[in-house]
Design goal:
The complex is a heterodimer of chains A (275) and B (267).
Chain A lengths: L1 E9 L5 E10 L4 E5 L6 H8 L7 E6 L2 E2 L5 H8 L2 E4 L11 H6 L8 H5 L5 H13 L15 H14 L4 E5 L7 H18 L3 E4 L3 H7 L2 E6 L2 E6 L6 H8 L4 H28 L1
Parallel strand pairs in A: 3-8, 3-9, 6-7, 7-8
Antiparallel strand pairs in A: 1-2, 1-4, 4-5, 9-10
Chain B lengths: L18 H21 L4 H19 L7 H32 L7 H16 L2 H12 L3 H25 L3 H9 L4 H36 L6 H10 L3 H29 L1
Classes of the chains: A alpha/beta (275), B mainly alpha (267).
């Protein structure tokens, strides 16, 4: 379980990115974090694993207060937190397998990672994950030889290779086409369901967020202005988060998308049955 | 309606707005240039003598003599090549940690200051000056040359490597840090793959430079083919000197071609 208490971040330039952000995420819950650009979504999830140092407040993972940890213990805490990035953030010149295995770096001593001699169970897990995300055939390719959707799958496998207790996901679909975006979101949510893994997904696509998240948190200038189930995200709530806009048009296209999504699922089921 | 808009447009002056100032500066620069050229003294009789000597030099070039002094030449070449290779290898090995330390995004401020200091010292002192100093310290010969080239390599590779590290893709580093990796693991997994092709390219390029420099510092006593060249010039054996220069040009061209090829291959 993750709990964030009165988290505040003021950058050295004096810009306040987050003000008194408080929420808890129970086991297995997928939280969609939405808000306009610059609302502090990225800063918030980076404060959780302290890639960005929070100014005040606490972040607790179970009983552990992450904000108070020193370097060594922080690394131990980070390996329990998997992170998936906007532009995949794979190490381009390493192979797919090396990228997935880098999820174990926090667990193995330097010489083992340097010589690429990872323990057997780690390697087996990496192969299993590559199989799970449908990339077994690409293990020895260089990461920059893959397409966007494939790269994001490697990013997911890397995060899961850590055997995390929490997933932080920063704009997973920002550089993907609509169909691939849905596939990636579905994969992430399925995996979270399978293992009861809590996740915070920072996402700018409201429709996707509503479709896949269990709960929506809306940020506006660093403050939480909405926190509830996707169904409660009304036009008024969206106006509070983003400012005035015609939300019905967006909902219409969202309904169309959902329909297409349902059709696609039906078709997949039919094909499976035919097999 | 098109008549309402102007049909002429000129790019506005970017640096100096006032037309008067632009004219004054241009005329001033021209006047200074003519005056400066006027102060250069040319001794035409000496130029004539020099031309004659140059002719003999060119003639030597056209009829290079590889055989008479071949033992000196080959010994010098081998010494130069040894000096080049050893100094490049040792220099690169030393400059990698210094380059990492001189990258602002990886090193703490005090390490950064020390490493930048070492790089600045190495770059401020020109090879010839270092060579003269080291020859005075360790005597004539290849050892002084080796030390000189190593010292110069550290500044060159250290600075360019540090700049490459500062330019790397920060999100890849962030992703590896987020897995709980230690500092060394971050270097090995996120930094090394990104800078390795450039480091190899720079090392090969430096090998090239070190060979050319070895010919120059030999003239001040630091051994190698430069020393042989210096000897043949002071004996007025322009045909041997021509042979040496041709060999240097040949080796540099081969190295240039090979390094370009290698750099494309490691991308």
């Amino acid at each position: 379980m993750l709990s964030v208490e009165k988290l505040t971040k003021v950058y050295r330039t004096g810009d306040t990115a987050l003000t008194d952000v408080t929420f808890t995420v129970p086991k297995g819950q997928v939280v969609g974090l939405i808000g306009p650009s610059g609302a502090g979504k990225s800063t918030l999830i980076r404060c959780v694993n302290r890639l960005v140092e929070p100014t005040s407040g606490a972040v607790r993972l179970g009983d552990l207060d992450i904000t108070r940890l020193r370097a060594r213990d922080l690394r131990r805490a980070r390996r329990r937190i998997g992170m998936i990035f906007q532009e995949y953030a794979l190490v381009e010149r390493l192979t797919v397998m090396e990228n997935v295995l880098s999820g174990r770096l926090g667990y193995v001593p330097f010489w083992r990672s340097f010589t690429r001699r990872f323990p057997g169970p780690d390697i087996a897990r990496a192969f299993a994950l590559l199989d799970r995300v449908g990339l077994s055939a690409h293990a020895d390719k260089r990461a920059d030889a893959l397409s966007g959707g494939q790269r994001q799958r490697v990013g997911i496998a890397r995060a899961l290779e850590q055997e995390p207790d929490l997933l932080l996901i920063d704009e997973p679909t920002a550089s993907l086409d609509p169909r691939t975006s849905r596939q990636i979101m579905r994969l992430i949510v399925e995996i979270c369901r399978e293992s009861g893994l809590p996740a915070i997904i920072n996402i700018h696509d409201v429709v996707l967020a509503q479709q896949f998240a269990d709960r929506i948190i809306g940020l506006q200038s660093g403050r939480v202005v909405f926190d509830g189930p996707p169904a409660q995200l009304t036009g008024d709530a969206l106006t509070a988060i983003y400012g005035a806009e015609d939300w019905t048009a967006m909902r219409q296209s969202a309904a169309d998308d959902a329909e297409a999504e349902a059709e696609e699922r039906d078709e997949a089921r039919k094909m499976l049955r035919a097999l | 309606m098109s008549a309402a808009f102007p049909t002429r447009w000129r790019r506005p002056p970017q640096m100096i707005r006032s037309r008067a100032w632009r004219v004054v500066l241009a005329v001033g620069a021209l006047v200074y240039l003519t005056l400066a050229i006027g102060t250069v003294e040319v001794n035409w009789t000496r130029v004539m003598v020099g031309l004659e000597r140059g002719q003999r030099f060119v003639a030597g070039f056209l009829q290079p003599d590889f055989t008479t002094r071949w033992r000196d030449i080959s010994a010098g070449l081998v010494e130069s090549l040894t000096m080049t290779l050893t100094s490049t290898v040792v220099g690169v090995l030393i400059s990698v940690p210094i380059g990492v330390g001189a990258a602002r995004n990886l090193a703490p401020a005090w390490v950064y200051a020390i490493c930048r200091g070492i790089i600045a010292a190495s770059r401020a002192l020109q090879e010839i000056i270092v060579a003269i100093f080291l020859v005075a310290l360790f005597g004539f010969g290849a050892f002084a040359g080796f030390l000189t080239l190593t010292f110069a390599t550290i500044g060159f590779i250290g600075k360019l490597l540090a700049e490459d590290i500062e330019d790397l893709d920060a999100t890849q580093v962030e992703a590896i840090r987020a897995t709980g990796a230690s500092w060394l693991q971050v270097i090995n997994y996120a930094v090394q793959p990104q800078v390795m092709p450039r480091l190899i390219g720079l090392s090969v390029y430096r090998l090239d430079i070190n060979f050319r420099e070895s010919a120059v510092i030999g003239i001040v006593g630091a051994g190698g083919i430069g020393a042989t060249l210096n000897t043949s010039l002071s004996r007025y054996e322009y045909d041997s000197a021509g042979a040496i220069l041709l060999l240097i040009i040949g080796i540099v061209m081969v190295a240039e071609y090979a390094s370009g090829h290698l750099r494309r291959w490691v991308q």
